[in-house]
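Design request, C-alpha cells follow.
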C-alpha cells in the first residue's frame, strides 16, 4: 500500500479552474481517505496556504487559471522557500513538460503530470511526493 494512504498528515489542495477536473481528483483522493481542499484559481490557493501554515501540503496545480495562474503560484512559493518549506507542488496540466521547463520553474516542483492522465499515474506521483517530506 502506498505510503500516503497510511497517514492523514497531509492536506491536499486541488487547484483547477475546471470544475470537472477538480471533482475527478477530489473524488480520487477522498476515496483514499485523504483531506482535500479545492481552489478554482491561484489566489484561492495562496489564501488556503495562509490558513494552513505549519501543515504538510501537497498542491495539485493546474497552470492555466484565472486571477493568479499556476505559474504565478509556483513563483510565489519558490521565492519564499522558508515560508513554504512544508509545501510540495505537483503540476497537472495539458501543457507539455518541455513548454513548462522553458519558464524555468521545474526546480520548484516535485512532479509534473500531463493531461490526460490515469488515476494510477496520479497516485504514483503523489506517493513519490509524500516521501519528499
Amino acid at each position: 500500500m502506498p505510503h500516503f494512504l497510511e497517514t492523514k498528515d497531509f492536506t491536499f489542495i486541488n487547484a483547477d479552474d475546471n470544475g470537472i477536473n477538480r471533482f475527478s481528483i477530489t473524488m480520487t483522493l477522498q476515496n483514499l481517505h485523504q483531506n482535500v481542499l479545492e481552489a478554482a484559481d491561484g489566489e484561492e490557493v495562496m489564501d488556503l496556504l495562509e490558513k494552513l501554515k505549519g501543515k504538510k501540503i501537497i498542491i495539485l496545480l493546474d497552470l492555466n487559471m484565472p486571477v493568479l495562474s499556476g505559474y504565478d503560484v509556483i513563483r510565489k512559493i519558490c521565492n519564499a522557500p522558508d515560508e513554504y518549506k512544508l509545501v510540495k507542488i505537483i503540476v497537472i496540466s495539458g501543457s507539455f513538460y518541455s513548454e513548462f521547463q522553458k519558464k524555468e520553474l521545474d526546480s520548484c516542483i516535485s512532479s509534473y503530470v500531463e493531461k490526460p492522465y490515469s488515476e494510477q499515474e496520479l497516485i504514483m506521483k503523489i506517493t513519490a511526493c509524500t516521501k519528499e517530506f
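Comment from the thread starter after seeing the answer: thanks! The helical segments are 19-31, 42-51, 70-78, 97-101, 119-130.
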